[in-house]
Specification:
Elements (H helix, E strand, L loop, with lengths): L6 H4 L10 H7 L11 E3 L15 H14 L4 H9 L4 E7 L8 H19 L4 E7 L6 H4 L1 E6 L2 E6 L19 H11 L3 H13 L6 H13 L5 E4 L3 H16 L1 H17 L12 E8 L2 E8 L3 E4 L6 E2 H10 L4 E3 L4 H9 L1 E6 L1 H10 L1 H6 L5 E4 L3 E3 L2 H9 L4 H6 L1 H14 L2 H13 L2 H7 L4 H29 L1 H14 L6 H4 L4 H6 L3 H8 L8 E3 L4
Parallel strand pairs: 1-13, 2-3, 2-12, 3-6, 12-13, 14-15
Antiparallel strand pairs: 4-5, 7-8, 7-11, 8-9, 9-10
Helix pairs in contact: 2-14, 3-4, 3-10, 7-8, 10-12, 10-13, 18-21, 19-21
Length: 537
Amino acid sequence: MTTASEAGERVDLVAARRLGGLAAALLDGRDRDLLAPLGFLGDFAPPALPPPRVDRAELARGLAAANAAYGHPRAAELAGKLADPATRVVTTGQQTGLLGGPLLSLVKAAAAVRWAEALEAAGQPAVAVFWMATEDHDWAEVARTSFLTPGGPRTFTLGDDPAPLAPVGTRAVGPAVAPLLAELRDAFPSPWFAAWLDRLAAWWRPDARFGEAFGRQLVATLGGRSPLVLDALLPELKAAERPYLARLVEGRAELDRAIAAREAEVVARGHTLQVAPQPGVSPLFLLRRGERRRIEWRAEAGFALRGADGVEPVSALLETIADNPAVVSPGVLARPAIQDAVLGTSVLVLGPGETAYLPQAAPAYALLGIAAPTLALRPQAVVLDGRQREHLDQLGLGLADLLGDAAAARRRLGERAGGGFVEPVRARIAALADELRAPALALDPTLGKPFEKTRESLDRALEAFAAKVASAAARRDELAAQRLDHLLETLLPGGAFQERTLSAAYFPGRYGEGFGAALADQLGLDARRLNVVDPTR
């Protein structure tokens, strides 16, 4: 049996059904050609090709100033390293969610740093960069946060979107953050959590912009091991994007055909398209009058903005890119290629969900004629402290048991508490029922189907009864039942995986400001194995 103390090494995410689809296929060596021209890293190995020769001097200067403002203690050092064309760049990113977004945002940042450190250990200079997707306008994605309060999982929000289609990076957090933080103070009255909430309140002020607040929190959490934090609206970045944005416009027909062909191939391989096909739709957006709207092609030389009237010449769009690239932004199928073209990325760290859309985004790399990076699946992590690990071991359950089938874990706990007497009887009844099959078929072969239905109904009824007996037995051991409930609530708050649900801000509040260091120290790079982070270790 896998115990909690062994779980960091042995919980197989594919077997536990926490990793599937294209991500699982890539780890098993299948369908990697769907990513072409990108490569794929399974177990760690330095990329074979030298880093792309990209002039990052201006971008590095902008990042040095921005990261110094975020409080990064190594801003100048890392920016200087980025400016060197011989340095490999490890890139990852996420939306700038309220109070740092879900834990996975922090895991991705730490993973990029660990990849850069691994490259350095292999003799290849490297720096990690975290791309803050501040050009996105998905308010519902960034305006909510969830904490595991003493009363259970609870979600806090900033309310309805006051300015639909406005990029997150251009918006202030707003006055709704003050009562939200007050609710958190009521939920967590302990002095150490209150001190952490004071720091969050200083970053997430009503007048602060999302990118600014997110960047400060990320840097403070990871300290000197924070990646360089890159705001997608940084002027030096937008200037560097100019030729690539123009190329995506000029090669629009070619890109459209290439994406359609790749989508057909993805479907033929049995995978689901992550992004719905949109023939004739650009992977770019235009910001006009404060609204970020999708660009759609019209005929051979025209374009329109989704939801707006009028058709304009493509030549006008190219002039806009040349004069003011800040108002043109890449969507999900163009962002990876734009990002990696500007940064000269060697290793791109993405999560399983992002990997699912990468085949559709891959053709943009070929169109832009850039050296595509190597993809690394980000590791996944769960935070489980020493006391919780002890409780899991005392229950006689493994972490994989809870993540794979919580109902089965409850049954096993109930059987240990004296509710296991049903299974032996169930097996005998099943054996007796099976004795009916041969004489029934000998009498009339058409009785085969009714027999199978009867057999299945009998088995389902006994299984349901066994579950009820196990639950009743488990309730007799109240402490064990409470501990199991608490562990399930910790690992799967609200039924969803912890790192996708709980706020990155929750853990430093609970475990102290050393949490970021614990995460960075204990995070491994094997994407198949679940990382168990113990902040108390």
